[in-house]
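[audit] Reproducing an earlier prediction to check determinism. Same input, same settings, fresh worker. If the tokens differ from the archived copy the diff job will pick it up downstream; this log only records the rerun itself.
[audit] input (410 residues):
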Amino acid sequence: MSYIEDFTLLKERFDHSEKKIDIPELETEILNIPFESEHCNILPGEPSYECREHHKFFPPTHPPEDSKLHESIQKLINVNDSSVKENKYFSFPVLRKAGCGRSKKAIILFHGLNEKAWDKYLPWAQKLMEKTGKTIIMFPIAFHMNRAPAEWSNPRAMRKVVEEKKKLFPRTLKSSIANAAINTRLHFDPLRFMWSGLQSYYDVIQLVNSVRNGEYSFIEPDAKIDMFAYSIGSFLAEILLMADTSGFFKDSKLFNFCGGPVLTRTSPVSKYILDSETNVSVLTFFIDYLEEEIRKDERLKHYFDNGHMEGEVFRSMIDYRKKKEFREDKFRKLSKRMFALGLKKDEVIPPFEIINTLKGEKRNIPIKVKVMDLDYDYDHVIPFPTNWNIEKEVDKAFNKVFKIASKFLK
């Protein structure tokens, strides 16, 4: 079957509400595994905070308030993130060969920013499973996929948000109902990116710890776990490898597809990701104000300065100029276990920025980075269009990309 045929079939069959989905045409089954995040209490919205590891207590943090903002915008800003049930209780899909027992090898697949459905990733997971023989764990980042309230994807509600935000910022580009929720939440409070990112990190550690404790029947407790990461998912995967205080990923490999650079060297302006004003707000905050915030906020300082390796690594992946030696030393030690593939016409994650970060300022870090071009119109969000008119070209490109990825991860 071609890429488009696989995409169509998997999209039609996939359902988050089903515990098990059989797809005999592909000799595949998908399991939806329930998960309860133990780390929501790190997010904004708690009456107080405790770092259990160091027995430290911190005062609450409050979202910014502005009585001049429209109700639709204020409603999104005032969400107590720690109380969002969808972000705490959710399921993650596991794709594997039909009828297989406990897997001895697995790949965690991480998605991109502002994703709401697994549709485009299902054939990616299918191809990785076919080529490597490994079980694919598709794990959602905090407030993405099925971890966000349905209202954030409600066209009518989000259209009002778009209209009101354009009144405040009339020069905004790439604003849409698809990115309205994330734009509003990050524009007025960029620190949400750090806290939800840290929760995502801890959730993955919780996932792997549960595997090691034998809590999942689909995978062996001592299974080798690698990672395939796309876009912002690469940011998370790199931090998992670079910090790895648990030692869970000491032998793991990571394949980055259209991902890898530090945050401030990305350009995520797209109607599917961030609008132009939100992008400026987020980048300005992290480039110009983050250090000041860390100095005056004791909880930020604890997690991102001198208390936690994962926070220190996270901070090193924000701005290319900051903590460069620390970051490049980490990548140098991981060089044999990483591979990155960028696309020539990708404007969101430019290939030269992948090279700048992963190969280092002096280009002396031996991480493999490959740049490809595809024989059709594509972009970062849709590298493999489901257009029947170019079915053969897309199929060729898709197979080439995943042949490279599978060879490295196998």
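[audit] rerun output stored. Observation attached for the diff report: Residues 3-409 form a domain with the Rossmann fold fold (CATH 3.40.50.1820).
[audit] end
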